[in-house]
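Before going further, learn to read the protein records used in this course. Taken together, the C-alpha cells spell out the fold as the letters spell out the chain. A record is reproduced here so that you can trace the correspondence yourselves:

***
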Amino acid sequence: MAEASAEIESVLAEAAASHPFLRKHGPEVVYHGFQASGYALTEQGHALTGEAVACLRGAHRTVTGQPLETSAITATTDARFFGLYADTPALVYGPRAEAIHGFNERVDLDSMRRVTQATALFIAEWCGLEPASGGRP
C-alpha cells in the first residue's frame, strides 16, 4: 500500500509541477477508508492451493453438474487473515447474492442450498471422515 500511495502522490506532484496554480498550491492527498494488505490465493503462495482449489472444483461439479466459475474481487474478506497471517490457503465460495452489505442485501436460496451441499462435500473430502460413535460414517 505504501508503494501504491507513493506512486500516486508522485504522479500527482509531477502533474502539479506543470500547472501554474498547482505548482504554488500543491494538492494534498488524503486516504480515507479501510486500508489493509491485499491477499490473493496463488499456487506460488502456498503448496496446498492447487489441491484446495481442485477439491472445491470437484465438490462444486458434483453438486451442481457445472464447472466452478472463478473470479478475482477487489474487496476484503476474512480469507485475507488466513492467507496472510495463518499460512492457510483460503477460498471464498458462496451463493449468488445482490446488494451485498446494502439495506436490501439478499441471497438466492437455491444457490444457498447448493453452496451448503458443496461446502459439506468439500469439507468431507478435504478433511476426511471418521466413523460416528455408532460405527457409521
About this structure: The chain has five helices and two strands. Residues 83 and 89 are 5 Å apart (CA to CA). The chain has a mean pLDDT of 90.
